[in-house]
Amino acid sequence: MRKKVMGALSVVALAGLAFSSTPAVAAATAPSGDVSVSATCARGEKVKARESVKIRKTKSISGTALGLFPKGKTACSLKNEKAKWYDSKCGQGSDQFDYINYRGTKGWVPTTCIVLD
């Protein structure tokens, strides 16, 4: 008898999850990958990472890392500013940094590591 009751409760619980709108709606409407970049980039430019590069708290290649901007992914560049000269691992040195928003992580990346998308 206990097995039948537990089995019935499991079926009811699973049925409740299947008909619950919250998880299904969240999964269906959650942005995947870079789909939301164009929507969030109304006040900036859409850029793509030439190489994987760390998103920094300050305009410096030695600044605190906040996250990673992976090679080939897109983000929104909100502004570009001059800073101290750096030798980039992306092929050339520069003194320019871009302030980007990549999936909610906002920070600075070397301009030489990104291209307009």
Describe the structure.
The chain is α+β, with helices and mostly antiparallel strands. It has two domains: 1-30; 37-116, SH3 Domains (SH3 type barrels), CATH 2.30.30.40. The chain is built from three helices and seven strands, in the order αααβββββββ. It has helices spanning 2-19, 21-29, 37-40, and strands spanning 45-49, 53-56, 65-69, 74-86, 94-102, 105-110, 114-116. Strands 6-5-4-1-7 form a five-stranded antiparallel sheet. The radius of gyration is 22 Å and the shape is globular. The model is unreliable at 5-32 (pLDDT under 50).
List keywords for this structure.
117 residues; alpha+beta; SH3 type barrels; 38% strand; globular
Count of runs of 4 or more consecutive helical residues: 3
Structural domain tally: 2
State the fourth-level CATH superfamily of the largest domain. SH3 Domains
Structural class: alpha+beta
Q: In terms of quaternary structure, what is this?
A: single chain
Mean pLDDT: 78
In what range is the share of β-strand residues?
Answer: 35-45%
- Radius of gyration, in angstroms, nearest whole number: 22 Å
Number of strands: 7
**Intertermini distance:** 63 Å
